[in-house]
Design a protein that fits this description.
Strand order of the largest sheet: 7-8-9-6-5-4-3-2-1-10-11-12
Number of helices: 12
Distance between the termini: 23 Å
Shape: globular
Bound molecules: S-adenosylmethionine
Order of helices and strands: EHEHEHEHHEHEHHEEEEEEHHHH
Helix content: 25-40%
Length: about 325
């Protein structure tokens, strides 16, 4: 389905929980965020009703995220049901990887093929600092298990932070020499509910690319089918097995090709990460709306998807999302 700016909206990101087993400094404040009450979180069957209404409007890809999706009970079964919806051509998940080791095989069994693992440092102590207590060994074991289980592509998401992990970007790029992973550098985005100071920690991907190019030749590559409409600019270090992606949400907006909708854990549809405009679906669902009525609401959200704000473009630091990434679904 085309929105009013001629973009084809075919991708739904589903946040199944706002709870997380980490407290990354740029994502959440130290004390954590107040969590949504259990009754206010969409039940799996409610999410599936929304997905079924959304596929009628052209959604063909679903990514499950959070909070940390793997902490929610029943997640594997839910993923199995989600990926069995015939119109959904691709089911993927974004995880911090802490619980991945135990469930990698089951994820594959549930029809998940693509997986994104967030990893902001390769050094155990720094990883623990950034995540406020995370154990990197578990993440590494999880990634290896996911690889063994045949999940592919495995994408490693790294957010470079000035003065914190910026010295590791070349180490991350080097991972791709021998491993068939896609390492993606994601620019820090401004969210109100985080401790990190966007203005002092933001690093543009242009700088990251330069640092890598000082040591390696980077060849730009065309994305595969599954990534063709994604926001990443892709490269390969000459001769490397894996790929390097740059997702430059701040320095090079990709609003004009944005194909996504986000369903928040508390049942709101959000058509733009940087606009706090949301449409409540949980209320109508619980009040007994029909599938047709649900479709009308989803359609309305697609129609209202903002093009982008000029103000953001000129000065991205001005606009901060009031909700944190853990509540919206990253
Ligand atoms: N718990 C899962 C995980 O860690 O991947 C999924 C949710 S997490 C919110 C999803 C992604 O959002 C992570 O890759 C994280 O790095 C990213 N993220 C969170 N806050 C961000 C920010 N302020 N700027 C850029 N990326 C952010």
């Amino acid at each position: 389905m085309l929105d009013k700016h001629n973009r084809e909206i075919n991708y739904l990101r589903i946040s199944v929980t706002d709870r997380c087993n980490l407290r990354c400094i740029y994502c959440m404040p130290k004390e954590g965020v107040s969590v949504i009450g259990h009754d206010d979180i969409l039940r799996y069957e409610e999410i599936l009703r929304i997905v079924k209404a959304a596929v009628k409007l052209g959604i063909v890809k679903a990514r499950v995220t959070g909070g940390e999706p793997l902490v929610r009970r029943g997640i594997i079964q839910f993923l199995g049901t989600l990926s069995a919806i015939p119109e959904i051509r691709e089911t993927s998940i974004t995880t911090n990887g802490l619980l991945l080791c135990k469930v990698a095989e089951q994820l594959r069994g549930a029809g998940v093929r693509r997986i994104n693992v967030s990893l902001d440092s390769l050094r155990p102590e720094r990883y623990a600092e950034i995540t406020r207590g995370g154990d990197i060994r578990k993440v590494m074991e999880g990634i290896a298990k996911a690889h063994e289980a045949g999940l592919s592509p495995i994408k490693i998401n790294m957010v470079p932070l000035k003065g914190i992990n910026e010295g590791e970007v070349v180490d991350f790029a080097r991972l791709t020499l021998k491993l068939p992973y896609q390492v993606r550098f994601i620019e820090l985005m401004p969210f109100e509910k985080a401790d990190s100071a966007f203005e002092s920690e933001y690093l543009s991907n242009e700088l990251i690319e330069e640092k890598i190019r000082e040591l390696y030749e980077l060849d730009e590559i065309t994305p595969d089918e599954g990534d063709a409409h994604g926001p990443a600019k892709l490269f390969r270090i000459r001769g490397a097995k894996g790929k390097i992606g740059f997702i430059s949400s701040i320095s090079r907006h990709f609003c004009s090709s944005c194909n996504r909708l986000r369903l928040t854990a508390d049942g709101h549809l959000r058509s733009c990460l940087f606009s706090d405009q949301e449409l409540d679906l949980k209320g109508p669902l619980r009040a007994g709306c029909t599938d047709e009525e649900l479709g009308v609401l989803i359609n309305e959200s697609i129609r209202k998807k903002p093009a982008f704000s000029d103000q953001n473009r000129k000065n991205p630091a001005i606009k901060k999302c009031a909700k944190g990434m853990s509540a919206i679904g990253g």
